[in-house]
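Handout, section 3.2

Students often ask what a structure token actually looks like in practice. Rather than define it abstractly, here is a full record for NAD(P)-dependent dehydrogenase, short-chain alcohol dehydrogenase family. The first block is the sequence as you would receive it.
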Amino acid sequence: MSDNKPLDDKVILVTGAGGGIGRAIAIEAAKAGAAVVINDIGASLDGRRESSAAAQDVVAEIEKIGGRAVANGDDVSDPDGASTMVRQATDTYGRLDAVVNNAGILRDGFFHKMSYQDFDAVVKVHLYGTFNVSRAAADVMREQGTGSLIHMTSTSGLIGNLAQANYSAAKLGITALSKSMALDLQRWNIRSNCIAPFAWSRMTSSIKVDSPEQEARVNRMKEMRPEKIAPLAMFLASNEGADTTGQVFAVRNNEIFLMSQPRPLRSAHRGEGWDFDSVAQHAIPALKPDYMPLTVSGDVFSWDPV
């Protein structure tokens, strides 16, 4: 029996890896043989810097189990910071095989109360951060002729949630960005995929509990550990994941979902073209049975996690 591990000789950069899902993926990747760059700026949930110790703490955990890791404190929302963390990976380990774009912040609020600053800050970290790190990594991966880009999206963007316009917009934007990267980079054997994770972490700890139903939902989420996300991320980073690209997955405890992507549902055709009356009397009544309801993530994933 071979002693080879699935990520032997791989180098992986995980952003926002000082805690939660990023930390779990980084530690499991190290156990699977990868050398890991642990990026974290030590920020509070809303993105304000607090401490730079988080990344170094994860490095110490990995070294304690015999793994290889280095800490990085650059900001994903800064293109120069993204370039620096990619360069640190190649300077330290000679290559970069996978990126996990996990860094994120939250500034929740109802749309009619949301400030420009809170919208901008969240989009900068999630969407621009994903672009910045992936763009810097793409140059290295093109030279290598291989690589894997893995991005954390959310059902807040894929389905919808209350009071998260900034976060939802950024997360759905990431899925479109990922698809474009998958299309543009396939000639260099670089793949790009998204994961929508369900797990109790610092990001989900901000969920407002103002009803028994919300309390029950939060209690269910507390049972979903960040470590449950790691196996899929490691597969996507491995050689075995080489033919998986352009996909959107969700992980919910012991369930893995392949999520749909927008495609036509129903059509209405009128040979002579449309005017206001025919749209109102013909097109809309024909299309209306397939309207998407105003559901939130909890409505769609309504059963208890298994």
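Discussion prompt for tutorial groups: The first helix runs from residue 20 to 31. How would you have guessed this from the sequence alone?
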